[in-house]
Structure formats: structure tokens, C-alpha cells
Amino acid sequence: MYGRGALGGAAGLFAFLAATPSAAQQADAPAARQADIGRAGAPATDTTLDPSAPLADLPDIGVAWPELAPEPAAATAVQATASGETRYSWRLDGMDGIGSPLLRERFAELSVLDQHDGEASNAAQLDRRAREDAALLVTLLRGEGYYDARVDMRIDTAGVRPLVVLDVAPGPVYRLKDVTVAGVAAAGAKAATLREAFAVKPDDPVNADRIAAAEARLRSEVGEQGFPFARVTDPVVTIDREARTATLDVGVDPGTPRVFGQVRTNANNRVFDARHVAEIARFSPGKPYYAPALDDLRRALIQTGLVSVAEVKPVPGTTPETVDIDVRLERAPPRTIAGEVGYGTGEGARVEASWTHRNLFPPEGGLTLRGVLGTQEQLGAVTFRRNNFRGRDRVLTAQIAAAHTQRDAYEANTFSLSGSLERQTNIFFQKTWTWSVGAELLASDERDVIVSTGAPRRRTFFIAAAPTSLTYDGSDDLLNPTSGFRIGGRLSPELSLQGSTFGYTRAQIDASAYRTIGGVVLAGRVRLGTIVGAPRDAIAPSRRFYAGGGASVRGYGYQSIGPRDPNNDPIGGRSLAEFAIEGRIKAFGNFGVVPFFDAGNIYTGGAPDFSGLRYGTGIGVRYYSNFGPIRFDVGTPINPQRGDSRIAVYVSLGQAF
Q1: Number of Cβ within a 10 Å radius of residue 246
Q2: What are the helix (H) ranges across 238-290?
Q3: Long-range CB contacts for residues 59-68, cutoff 8 Å, separation at least 24
Q4: 369 domain residue, yes or no
Q5: What is the pLDDT of residues 338-364, one digit of tens each?
Q6: 193 and 242 fall within a common domain
Q7: Considering 73, 172, 518, 534, which has the largest number of Cβ atoms within 10 A of its Cβ?
Q8: Residue 352: inside a domain
Q9: DSSP 8-class letter at 69
């Protein structure tokens, strides 16, 4: 016996299977309808029947009533418990070694017996649920090629609770005799690649998921091979029940391969013109069409935060060999107001507020007004930022800022002008390589003490700097890495005017590595820094190296590690060395614990000699949210200096490193 049907992916196959019930299911249908009498939602006037009450006499219709056949054992078991509701248990028999983990997962999600397990139920409800699960199992088994599958149900009332048993007889698995991909030869030299993409072969089981996955991969591959207007027909499976085999046919009309033409946008979208969209795109005119590049462009447009809808689709180009890209955009609200309130050990209380218009100077030219009011910091800044500047993920920034900073090491009033061009990474498109080049001019009035005497002093510095950075990120995640490593360097030649003009160079290297062992992520970090070209006291206190705090050596206050003046305040140094190791352990649910051990010190000389290291240890808690881990660390110094607190607390988004 043969059966034929067009299958539109897994959903189509399941629909096809569900539409052809087994003989056992057809025979059980009247009983299932009778069981529905006791379902939830019956009219309020319905009353519970007394099974011991005598039946009324049958009406006389002039013809003798036929003798009724004995009821099946399952029906008898149901009636035996019809006087009330009780909790039940259930099990599957005959499933050992049968079916994939995905089948079992789907059954667990859809099983009505499992959903109501532990609830008090009456006999009719048990009967109906058992029949629904039996039908579900037959459909799922057919989806994996068991076309002769049969599931019988019975309800055993011999125990303390009714036991619903589903007996599975899967039968043999049907296999594909022939697999045909018609029309693929029209793709020419790329025909073999397209045929391999449809990874279903003769003698494979007639598995709905594998067929659907092969169809999806074929549709994707024709786009990756440069055919923007290819058509792939739904797979058609023909079943031969006598031979217990099947044939599978799918058709491909690849059309002609094309190259990218121009980008077009909808008029008056009030966001981007076609030129800027083309700058964001990772394709250019004349290059072979590549479908994944359209998905990449769609994500990049949404990631700007300036569009609420981005539709990207291929359309015929102006010539037969080209394909134009039609982009439809809808504008998102461009303004953002943000606020932040926090407290840090050594940094004091802090309130920050900002207003941003992300597209005040189209395209993607944003203006931010930011203010900080804190016990140890006050700041006002105006920042211009243009994203995707002359290329994807390039950011041009210019800033004017005035700040007052109060630290244990110094007090500074600073006015600065700065600008930079950088290639950034983000959680949507994590980059392997990032870089930045910039320039900075600042005037800073700073107060500290003379180290030899402790007497206060005040100096004004005029500084010009050209900071640059280069970073390699080989980790598997930006906010929560579990493997790989990162390494980055920063170099800033600086010219300082204070009494006389002199120059020096600041350099710093940061490296971290991550490895998962037995479910625990081991993470380690090293930081080394040096300032060459000038003595420590000649360098502005705000430009020296400091250590201690949540992003440095935990357990110590912010910038508290290193040499100190006669007032026991830190004075910074020309070099630093820091080390950290921690174990990130998932505890329960979205929570984890992180024991850590840190070390570091600041040195007066131009190179760290690794002497006198300060050690800190502690434990942290992580909450792994959808947007990254939230960090809460509590640390204590092992060998504190005089005046160091015994406990330090740090809270932030993301891991410590």
C-alpha cells in the first residue's frame, strides 16, 4: 500500500502523520468521545452518576435490542474508579532503545499525563489523557520513521493509585530507498555543493527532523553560493508499506548567480540614507552575492539603536547579472536619559545622569551631556560620538570635560579636550582585533604633598598626549568568557609643561586566560605597566600608576596599594605589577560563587621588581542575567598596610576580567 504527500518541513510531516491515524486509534475513537463526557468545562447542570443505581428501561421501538459485547478491560478499569477522583501514576513500556533524545524531550513537553501528574483526576480524564498521549507517541514515532507504530493503553487499578500504562510497539523503522534532488544540475559547477547540502541519503531512516534540517540547509546553501532568487520545493515523501521503504523528492530551481549591485533605502525613513547603509554593509558592488551578508546587515542596523524595524531583501538589479539590496527602515526614539547611583570603597558615593540624542547629527552623530556628583568626584562633559564612521564599527569621539577629583593621593581640577578614532567590539559582534588612536590636551591644577616632608604643594600641569591601544580577544564571550585568552597593550607618549617642558611615555600590557575544567572556569590575569622618561615626582599625580580596588587587587581600597607619604596617603609610582586568579563555579540556577586570590604592588622605579607584593583574597557571588553576569565581590587584605580596611566590597556588571 502506498501513501503520498508534500512535506513542508517538520511541521508538514507531523501534520501528514497526524492525519493518518493507526487502525488502533480509529477503533478507539468512539470510546474517546465517550470519555469526553467527564472533561473539564461540562455544563454546570451535569451531575455525578451513581454507578450502583439501576438503569432506566430502554424505550420500546418495536425491534429487539441487540446483545452488547463485553466491554474491554481498560473500560472496565475506568468504570471501577468512576465514583470519585484520585491521584494517579503512569509509565511507558516498550521504549527502551527506541526513539531519539529529541523525541523523548518533545513527549515530555507535550504529554498531558505528565502535565497533570500529581493532580486528583477522575476516570474519564485518565482515559482521555491516556488516549491523547498514545496518539502523540504514534505521531512522534512516525516522525522518526516508525510508520507501523502502535501504542495501546490500559489502566491498572490494582494498586493504591490507578496506574496508566502505555505499551509501545514501534515496529520496524522505514528507510529511504531513493533520494532525488531534481534541477540541481542547473547550478553548474556548484551543483555538487548544493547536492551535498541536502544531507539525506538512501538507506537513511525516514526522519522528519533530518529531512527538515536538510531542506533548511539546502535553502541556505543556494543563497551562500550566489543564487539570490533560487526556489526550493517542499520535500515529497512516498511510502511503500509493503516494502517498508520510502522515496524522497525535492526540487531546486537555482536561477542565475549574481553579484551585488547598489543598496536602496525607503524614502523619508529619517534615519539613514543608502550611502551610510552601504558603509555599514560587509559587501560591496561587484562582489558575488552572499545571503548571510544580508542577515549581518540587518543585525547591524538594529544594533545602532536608531531603527525599530530593518527589512533587508534582494531585488533584481538594473542588469541581469546584478542583485540590488532593498532596505526598509523605521525610526526608533533617538533620545536616551540615563542615571546611575552607586558607592565604592575608596571612591565614595556617586550619582551620574546623562542625556543623549543618538542621531542629532545624521548619520549616527550623537551628542551626550553628562554630569557626575559625588563625594569625591564632580564632572561635567559634552561628548560628540559618530558610530560607523567611514566604515563598520569605527567610532569617532570628541569630548570637552571639566572635573574635580578628590583622592587619597591627590586633589585635581582638570579641564580636558580629547578625541579618538577606534574600532570597537560589542556583545552583538565580538571582534578579535580592536584598536584606538587618539589625542588629548589638558590643564590640571593638582595638589599633593612633598614626599620627603609631607608638606602640601600645588602645581599646574599642561599635558599633551597621544594614546593608542591594540587588543587581541580570543575568548569565547565578551562578558562571561569560559575559554581562550586576551592580550592588549596601551602606549601613550606625553609632553608635560610644569615649570619646564619634558616628555615621558606610559605603557601597559594586560593579559588574561580562561579554561573550563570539570564545570569550573579557571581565570587568570596579569597586568604590567611602566613610565619611562621622567622621575616620579615630576609626573602629575593624576598620570601615575595606582593599584587596589575592584578592577585591580581586590581586598584593598581604591588606589591604596604602593608607596605612601608621611601622612600615610598613597603617592603612586612609575611601574606596577598585578596578578589575579579565580574559580567561577555555577552554584544553583542563575547563581554562582567565585573564590579569588589577587596580588600586586606599585614601584617607584621604571620597571617592577615584584618585591613587597600585597595579597588579597575573598569570595564573590555572580547572578547570570540575560545581558551578562552581575558581580558582587567581598575581599580582605592578607598583608595589609597601616590604615587599610579589613573588608572591601565591589559591585559591577561583567566579570572582574
Answers
A1: 23
A2: 274-280
A3: none
A4: no
A5: 998 877 666 778 899 999 999 999 999
A6: yes
A7: 534
A8: no
A9: P
